[in-house]
Amino acid sequence: MSGAARSMQLLPNYLLLTIFLLIVLLPILGITLSAFKTDAEIVAGPFSLPSEWSLDAFKRAWTVGHFNQYFRSSTIVSTAVVIASTFLSILSGYAFGVMRFPLQRLVYFVMLIGFMVPFEAVVIPLYHIMNRFGLTDSYWALILPQIGQSISFGTLWMTSTFLSMPQELIDASALDGCNRWQSLWRVLFPISKPAVFTLVVLFFMWTWNEFLLALVMVQQESLRTLPVGLAFFQGRYTSDIPLMAAGSLIVAGPIILIYILFQRFFIKGLMGGAVKG
Amino acid sequence: MKTLIRVLSVVLVLIFTLSACTSKTVTTGDVTLVVWDQFYREAETQVIDTLNAEFEAAHPGVKIERVVKQLDDLKTTLKLALSEPNGPDVAQVNQGRSDMGAIVEAGLLLPLDDYAEQFKWDARFSASVNKRNSFSEDGKIFGRGNLYGVSATAEVVGVYYNETMFETNGWQIPTTYDEFVGLLDTIKAAGETPIAFGSLDGWNAIHEFSAIQHIFVTGQYLDDFVYAVNNVSFDTPENQAAAAVLSNWATAGYFTDGYSGIGYDDITKLFKAGQGAMTITGSWLAPELLADTDFEFGFFLLPQATADQAQLAIGGVGIPYSIRKNTLHPDLAAEYLDWMVSPRAAQLWAEASYVPAMPLPEDFTLEERSLFADTVLAWNRINQDNGVGHYIDWATPTFYDTIVAQLQKLLAGEIGPDAFTSQVQEDYGAFLADQ
Amino acid sequence: MVFFYGLSKPTMNHRRSWPGESKFLGFVYLLPALVIYLVFILYPIFETFRLSFYDWKGFGSKPTLIYLQNYQEILQKGQFLSALSHNLVFIAFYSLLPILIGLILASLLGRRALPGMAFFRTGLFLPQILSMVVVGVVWRWIFNPAFGPLNMMLKSIGLTWLALPWLGDSTWALPSVGLIGSWVQYGFCMVLFLSGMQRIQPELYEAAELDGANEIQQFFFITLPGLRPELGVALITTVIAALRVFDLVYVTTRGGPGDATLVTSFLVYRSAFQQNRVGYAAAVATILTAIILVVSFLITRYQSKSEV
Questions:
Q1: Which among A16, A99, A260 has CB closest to C26?
Q2: Residue B356 DSSP symbol
Q3: Per-residue pLDDT reduced to its tens digit, A131-181
Q4: What is the rounded end-to-end Cα distance, in angstroms, of chain B?
Q5: Which fold has domain B155-316+371-434?
Q6: Cβ–Cβ of B266/A238 closer than 8 Å?
């Protein structure tokens, strides 16, 4: 079959894919364009180009809409959760995947429950526990439970990563005079970096997008994260579409950027179960 | 189990100390008063910021830390925040059983009766106004007992009309209910939307219904209903009639196209752009209608059956300022409250075209035939007629959710007026039975 | 929150302790994670369960033990059941529709590798990584009857009768919010199944064709069984998303109009944090959790059968 004939044959396939791709992309494109328009230009239709690429809506959202504060909160919370959860997941995954200790299976199973249950199941008492200790209205109220849920998945992920490492490799590091700690960081960690990085992007995405916990735990505007800020913001400025659009892009921007840079890891992580098959 | 609890408490104490280290330090001698309010609109914020600055200037060493929230936001977060050890000192607490009632019941608000005497608030507010901000100490009886808040602004719900459009078409302001209904037809026939209305947000559907309801019922009934005395019911012929009117208006196409999918702010925007001859909402909207628009707007009360009848309309005072019971600075907080309802505050609110709850300063002159004058006159009128109605959603803790859900069903034609009133009565009756 | 493959028993048996090492050393590594997990996840789960037997406002007064009354109310009043039925409708939109689209596309396109697939994959996957609040804001704008592009477009092509108040219409609100879910999930399913198709050996199809099997038979006897692991992942991800949906409803409709889009998790939030009915909310949360656990377990079993 000649190359041209072959591409002709594939054309319907590409057409089909393009249609489905457009359905995904057009809403995102529409909101992106709207963020740069004036109120009057909005009426001209969602895909008309703005006469001037104005950053005014972003400036208003950033200062008037307090997105600068929300952005700060989201960054602090996400950074803390990602670092702590990744580190702790490596340690616990190492314990489950490489060592032997009593009740190993049982504890493992108990830790798995965590990422199956939704936050709805924990948020009510969590709020009252935090309140009793004066921890609501602080970043701790967002960070600690989020770490709790993240390490549940992280433990699972790192355990299966470490389980796939051959026993000989581990024993060899013992013969080289490593203790367990050194064996982890000098031998196993370097070859697990892709798995760890997948964990990092997933943790970041989940924390950045988390809504219910942040909605309930924090009452102070200055501590709010981006998604909660945006949700309340939309109640206030529904009809100011450029402003809403700019706000949405500030929330989605960082995650889209990281996604485009590291999409391999996102897709691998989110499809993890199937890839293993 | 015991060890588990011990482990837990150790961890939590540890975390607590950690967080204590990071919390900000207050310089000695200075006092920070944390105030939560819901004056988020531009014009409102200016009034509050001016008042706060003047209060700080008059009280050296005192700093006001202001947290602005939208009402919806305030309602969800305030109860929880007031129960925190470091919650706000002063906050606007919505009246009614689901908010102020529940918070009083939880023992989180400071009774203000002593301060009322000290600052002579009685001279500024009528008994009917104070009733709205009062609860028994256990939070069970509404409209009696202790005073828990003072309001800075007054509110009256009525009809805004597009004066420019009215003049072009030669339409007259109706003086009786029948004239009003006739006007709706006339406007519709002229190809305009008679009433700009959107029910997506829910709460303003209550106003739409209740504004009509206030034409059919008596002030006494509304008092009894809201304060839960004399065992009245919601399932009455009057309420059914009002529901029927609302549902008829919906089917007759008097409301904005696609009204069930449009929110309150969007409707405001449409109305300002000349889409819709009238809109039914509260006096708080007036300042917003004065800015950035090509049209002139006016305001009138939804008329009674006859022109000489006493006027009854939804109204009351804005969300009151209250003091958290465990505040470290109750006296200072009370002084702040007094300042927020001072003649100076009345002056600033009036200048911003908001009707103050306090008497207008004597030297204040109303610009004749302005939108603001319309709303002030409407407020004065219902006060003279002793016809200040109620927000009916204050009646029970769950009334708001119930009536919004039922109104949306009524508007969609899913249920009729009879089913509507009996469904709502189910909520109200269950509440009365519980009392 | 989505993957369950770890439930199939890990092979920890071949690990051994090093000479002279305490058998409790593993706990040292585990301890920090375990403590945080116990305090902030597991203990609150038990507390939710315990609270579900109490009547409590959430602040002020002490909880009163009322045994099963919350559960009784859940079963007797229609609110919970109607919320749960909305979750079931969402399963059709979040799960069935995207999986169907994904399967059809995979069987049409998946048999040969398409150059440039990576580009399409990046785009199709995009909604998965977005905050549901952002998705909700975007779609609330699209559906807005006054300024939204959807109705603007419908009116401009003469379909004025179709320009409905989507999110405010008591009949259309639920499917409208559901369709947003389909929008989020279908790309994920497509990518998942397309990559799964690469694993199925082309010889199987060739042999089937020789045996006279038609396209539909090939789909049911080769494609579907071959994609079983992917189907498991797709099901578990999307079904749980449909059962848990909260952010999207909060942003688009808050459960309205009426209670037309009220879902279980929103009922939990509303009862616990707006209506001060903590015990009742805890009971609803407990049931929701139980349902999610059972569903996850069933799907995992279905999936793990294929991995034997």
A1: A99
A2: B
A3: 777 787 789 999 999 999 999 999 999 998 999 888 889 889 988 888 999
A4: 40
A5: D-Maltodextrin-Binding Protein; domain 2 (3.40.190)
A6: yes
